[in-house]
Specification:
This protein is of the alpha+beta class. Helix content is 36%, strand content 16%. The chain is built from 31 helices and 31 strands. Strands 16, 17, 21, 22, 23, 28 and 29 form a seven-stranded antiparallel sheet that branches. Strands 3-4-8-9-13 form a five-stranded antiparallel sheet. α1 packs across α2 and α20 runs antiparallel to α21 (538-554). It is globular, with a radius of gyration of 32 Å. The model is unreliable at 40-107, 311-321, 644-659, 661-665 and 779-783 (pLDDT under 50).
Length: 909
């Protein structure tokens, strides 16, 4: 049998597959292999070297690794940090040219089913190639400061003075308040800032390095309203703008974004065989891959995302003043210094347009009863119809004919409006493919709140009044808003309210709605939660589309119950395009209008409030420039001096008194000082509800002592024995690619009620429910089971979290929790798909035990089984005790959805 030897560490392997596996697991060899392989490919693509280098590649034994199966390369963004070429060597290729996939790391699988590190296929020809070394704006600024004496904080005298200036600029303090503050004797005499009033303060701010400059263009616009003489009203309007290419250069060249920057497309897979595709950021989608094929080798594409407001768009949609720089740069390319310090030729191309439906239709030059992406007839939008996508060249032709006074037949058929499209000269731009999913307006506000809630409420026995009662008595959770007055009286809804209603709405309907209504609502909620994934696989995209098909299969119930006549609704139809948009441009979270609306609130509205409300636009641009300058300088300081600034470490009295003490593995954390010190057993029994405390504790201690006698201190536990009790604990939920790349902090409470006192309201009890293991897992301490992530887990209610004294022996290593257990995950409600559980009993009493907190995996939320109508004796504070049957809520958090809906699909019957 031939031997395959790793030429980097000289280990022998018996097969080519074994050598590939070795390179996939050993980073030093993998890095060396990738460098050599890239160099060989570079040589084979060189025209001047010709066949000699090609023969070298053919004879090199390492080339065998790229014949039949994906080869194990390094992580995909290595090329982002390749060193620039020296004078004696050619510019490096920024990606491997393998046609096969490369593993980023070991193939361990996350709880959500995706690998922790994906298999990567690089673009088959050079892309994102570095031309030479450059100097970023931050590097230039640092050099200038070193040449000027080394004070990074200039124009400010010190770090402390900069901290003060940063706070005064970004904290929302008015100019008059800044002036008053700087003139205070304590500020003037003790702080001694180098600026003594608002004028000198802003003079210093204005000397900070600035971003792209603002300019203004004004002209007259003739409106469609008439004056008193019957003439059209003419208004002078202003367009404040920045050079779009300068803005792109500012972003792509910011070293603060270095670790998040990608210069070439890649394809990600869940396994070595490249069967299951993974989509997350834009560079993993089909759009960038397809666009890269159009350009010469080595070119860098910068996908551009635009977002607009309808008012401005209607005034300036046909104006070309803002677009020539983007048109020229898209066609010719512009050399830019990138965040990694390398110069690349960048072609900015419009990839995505973020807007709500009216703005989308304005951009697409179509009426609002039409789809801005496809040619579906308005009266068929309620069907599962995949119509032909709009063609930019065809639409341009129809518009041009209409401008000439002609009457093309398809102009009306396509529902077009006579608008001069701003996008017609943008290179490589398909504006209709650019229109992206809008999670906020289309799903949360549109499909869910405006339609599903209205339709389902009309189908509910008891109507809105019954729904309100169910919301009022709903069980609580730290991550769930409690609608204490129901939902019918909420006058102003925001995205936060929509999402909190979605978390429990299906559970609210159970028992009082037609099963078909439950299935329709479940399908919509599943679609919304899948649409929120930050990473999709081929499998999850199939489930997203299957969920929407399920809604269409069940929607007829609303017609049967005389709630609807049709479903020709723009936002309902838009969901059909989600899957394809995600495959093309990456996941929908990157294009959510919530981001642009949040920026509008944070900057446009704050900028307006900072003005004197007269000729305010110019004042707003000045305010924005100063905000950006401060944030830009702050980013520079973080880059030049990475240690955290003082203001980044908030300290409060509560922090100092209740610092959490994480374990060595950071699985859980509790307060340094227990909230209820020296709590007696009698109190735990009477106020915390730990009815079988002594017996459960003795059983727990015996499990730890094996056959050894219990410690003396543990042999006589009585009512006056005391323990330190915690108010809460925190568990770290693991990072799941679909939800978050970092662990999530999960709070679990166990606090009794506090009666009202003068000037202080009563505080209700909070004994949260959790997913926990009654016994330690004998196979996998982490509890992760790839076939069934719920294996070994059970729902329990935490009655108390406390610590045993060291004298109790090994059982005192971790805090422990008193648990009340529910029945296992055996039953799934067919219409809602939620697990149905009840209290677990033994001899007609709730089954209880004490376990180490290390066996608690996460919090969970239970929805009561209300039946046909809610029991009027129930309240939110006691419903866990009053009700006997519950549903485990898969919609509490997206993390729960992955675990309780996506990952367990098909594993539980």
């Amino acid at each position: 049998m031939p031997s395959y030897v790793c030429k980097y560490c000289h280990q022998s392997k018996q097969s080519l597959k074994g050598l590939r596996s070795h390179l996939a697991q050993k980073k030093s060899c993998r890095d060396a292999f990738r460098r050599r392989f890239s160099a060989i490919i570079q040589a084979t693509t060189s025209i001047t070297q010709g066949q000699r280098e090609a023969d070298q590649f053919e004879d090199d034994p390492d080339s065998q690794l790229d014949v039949d199966e994906p080869a194990p390369f390094d992580p995909p963004n290595l090329h982002s940090h390749n060193p620039p070429p020296t004078d004696n060597e050619p510019p490096p290729n920024t990606t491997s040219h393998s046609r096969r996939a490369s593993v980023e790391d070991v193939e361990d699988e996350e709880p959500g089913g995706l690998p922790k590190r994906a298999w990567v296929t690089d673009f088959p020809s050079p892309a994102g190639t570095a031309l030479r070394e450059g100097e970023t704006a931050f590097a230039k600024l640092q050099r200038e400061k070193e040449e000027a004496g080394g004070n990074l904080w200039l124009p400010f005298a010190s770090k402390d003075e900069w901290e003060l200036a940063r706070w005064l600029t970004t904290a929302g303090v008015s100019q008059s308040a800044i002036d008053d503050f700087l003139k205070l004797p304590i500020t003037r005499d003790r702080t001694h800032p180098s600026f003594h009033n608002k004028r000198t303060f802003f003079q210093k701010i204005d000397t900070l390095p600035q971003g792209p400059a603002w300019s203004c263009e004004s002209w007259e616009v003739t409106g469609d309203e008439l004056n008193e003489k019957g003439e059209p009203i003419v208004e002078t309007v202003e367009l404040w703008k920045r050079n779009t290419v300068d803005c792109i250069q500012e972003l792509i060249g910011n070293p603060a974004f270095k670790d998040n920057m990608q210069y070439a497309p890649e394809k990600l897979y869940a396994e070595e065989e490249c069967k299951t595709r993974i989509f997350d950021e834009t560079w993993t989608g089909e759009w960038w891959w397809d666009k890269q094929k159009v350009f010469p080798a080595g070119v860098t594409i910068a996908p551009v995302i635009l977002s607009s407001d309808k008012t401005q768009l209607s005034q300036f949609s046909g104006d070309k003043a803002a677009w020539p720089p983007l048109i020229e740069a898209g066609n010719q390319g512009v050399e830019m210094v990138c965040a990694d310090g390398c110069v690349r030729r960048v072609h900015p191309i419009l990839a995505a347009y973020i807007a709500d439906h009216p703005e989308q239709c304005l951009v697409a030059c179509c009426k609002e009863n039409c789809c801005p992406k496809c040619t579906v007839p308005p009266d068929r939008r309620g069907e599962v119809v995949y119509s032909v996508m709009r063609d930019p060249r065809e639409i341009e032709q129809l518009l041009e004919e209409k401008w000439k006074g002609e009457s093309p037949a398809d102009f009306k058929a396509y529902g077009l409006r006579l608008i001069d499209p701003f996008w017609k000269d943008l290179p490589h731009c398909n504006i209709f493919a650019c229109i992206t999913p809008d999670l906020l307006h289309q799903l949360h506000k549109g499909v869910f709140k405006d339609h599903i809630v209205s339709w389902a409420s009309a189908c509910m026995e008891g109507g809105e009044a019954e729904i309100d009662r169910r919301f009022k008595v709903m069980t609580t959770h730290p991550d769930l808003r409690h609608f204490r007055k129901g939902i019918s009286l909420v006058s102003q809804w925001t995205g936060t309210e929509y999402k909190n209603m979605e978390k429990v709405f299906l559970g609210v309907l159970t028992g009082g709605s037609n099963p078909a209504v439950l299935r329709a609502v479940r399908a919509v909620l599943d679609f919304i939660y899948y649409a929120h994934f930050e990473a999709h696989s081929s499998d999850s995209l199939a489930k997203l589309e299957a969920a929407w098909n399920s809604f269409h299969a069940e929607k007829s119930i609303f017609v049967d119950l005389d709630i609807r006549d049709d479903f020709d609704i723009a936002k309902v139809h838009s969901a059909l395009h989600y899957g394809q948009s995600i495959r093309q441009l990456g996941t929908a979270d990157g294009y959510n209008t919530e981001a642009s609306e949040r920026l509008h609130i944070d900057f446009a509205k704050r900028a307006y409030r900072s003005s004197n409300k007269k000729a305010y636009t110019q004042q707003m641009t000045t305010w924005l420039s100063r905000q950006e300058a401060v944030r830009r300088f702050d980013a520079f300081l973080r880059w030049a001096e990475p240690q955290p600034l003082v203001s980044e470490i908030p300290q409060t009295e509560q922090d100092s008194q209740h610092d959490e003490q994480p374990t060595s593995l950071a699985r859980y954390s509790v307060a340094k000082d227990p909230g209820f010190g020296a709590t007696k057993v009698k109190t735990l029994v009477e106020k915390f509800g730990c009815a079988n405390f002594v017996r459960n504790l003795e059983d727990h201690l015996r499990r730890f002592s094996s056959s050894q006698p219990l410690p003396l201190v543990a042999q006589n536990i009585h009512d006056r024995t005391s323990f330190d009790v915690y108010k809460r604990m925190h568990v770290r939920l693991p990072a799941i690619r679909q939800i978050s790349r970092t662990p999530i902090k999960d709070t679990i409470r166990a606090t009794p009620s506090v009666p009202a006192k003068p000037l202080r309201k009563a505080i209700p009890a909070h004994f949260d429910t959790v997913l926990a293991r009654e016994f330690p897992s004998p196979v996998d301490p982490s509890g992760h089971n790839q076939d069934n992530p719920l294996h070994g887990l059970c729902v329990a209610r935490v009655r108390a979290i406390f610590r045993l004294p060291e004298e109790y022996g090994p059982a005192s290593k971790h805090p422990v929790a008193y648990m009340e257990w529910f029945t296992p995950f055996h039953t799934v409600a067919p219409d809602t798909g939620m697990f149905k559980i009840s209290w677990s009993t033994r001899m007609h009493r709730r089954r209880t035990s004490i376990i180490p907190v290390t066996q608690i995996e996460r919090s969970c939320h239970l929805i009561p089984h209300f039946g046909r109508e809610v029991n009027l004796q129930w309240s939110s504070g006691d419903i866990l005790d009053q009700c006997s049957t519950f549903y485990v809520n898969p919609y509490l958090r997206h993390h729960d959805f992955v675990l309780l809906r996506h990952a367990v699909a098909g594993t539980v019957t």
